[in-house]
Amino acid sequence: MLAIFFCLFIALASAYPARGPCTGDCWTHDPSMIQRESDGTYFRFSTGTGVNTMTSPSLTGPWSDVGAALPNGSKITLDGVDSHDIWAPDVHYQGGTYYMYYVLSKLGTQTSQIGVATSKTMEPGSWTDHGIIGIPANSAYNRIDPNWISINGQQYLQFGSYWQDIYQVALESPLGVGFNTPHQIAYNASLNHRVEGSFLYQHGGFYYLFFSGGIAGSYTATYPAQGEEYRVHVCRSASGTGHFVDESGRSCLESGGTIILASHDQVYAPGGQGVLTDKDLGPVLYYHYYPLSVKQSGGNGIAGYMYGWNELDFSTGWPVVKAV
Ligand SMILES: *[C@@H]1O[C@H](CO)[C@@H](O)[C@H](O)[C@H]1NC(C)=O
Ligand SMILES: *[C@@H]1O[C@H](CO)[C@@H](O)[C@H](O)[C@H]1NC(C)=O
What we know:
mainly beta; five-stranded antiparallel beta sheet; 21 strands; 41% strand; globular; hydrolase
């Protein structure tokens, strides 16, 4: 019996490879990562006052906190929300400009808006805020966790968290949706639909929809039951605009979504992920996690979140988290 448990333990312990290393300031929460075109500098943006900005000469560090992207906050006004408290940035580059989608929201409610800011350099304070992008309000979704992609020349934003989960909307321009209406692309029918933080990434002939399933949280006083905490799922689609399925062929509108990364070793509750196309390494999955030792010692709220990363191997047609 003991031997069986021991073997099971070994199997679980080795289910996922170790995360990539990080030196310097390794805090993050709902990161967005991008390399600057001009000099290859890595930028890591996080939820936080004015959008926290960290930079590094390499993926591994040393990372430095260089300040707030929007030190004066957003021009969006939402009842009961501090306009400096900006969530879930998503940054991309097109036509010589960096675009940052961001969120103002009242936690656990549909009082939310997605806005956009632009910069030529991504330096703190260099961002021009353009405010709301104009996704129509709807009781079906929550307007948080934006993620941009271009598919055959048409730009889209993925967004959503709980309620009816993940939606996609075509953009009229990078600054607004115009009269386009969102359509649902992923949904978990169970419990209260714990799906959020979507990120769509094209590789080979497919579009891969990464999302965080399970319970996010500061993991301080009360912890979810084991297995219910944050983890990273993936679905794929040939068109990128619908018909997402998981590795077993289950529709991602019907609770599908293959888990590719979950709690292991010191990495508890990985999520808030995205994929960086590293100029040297290719596709890299980045995420936040909560160190198990911090959780076990009672935690220290969102200050405890850390940045993790692993290269992704797409050779089977499905992304696999690689050992460093
Ligand atoms: C923030 O607001 C102050 C006061 O209005 C202004 O002087 C400063 O230029 C603003 N900073 C940014 C980055 O917009
Ligand atoms: C759907 O939700 C259930 C209950 O929370 C969970 O066990 C399952 O892993 C979820 N699946 C996906 C793909 O999110």
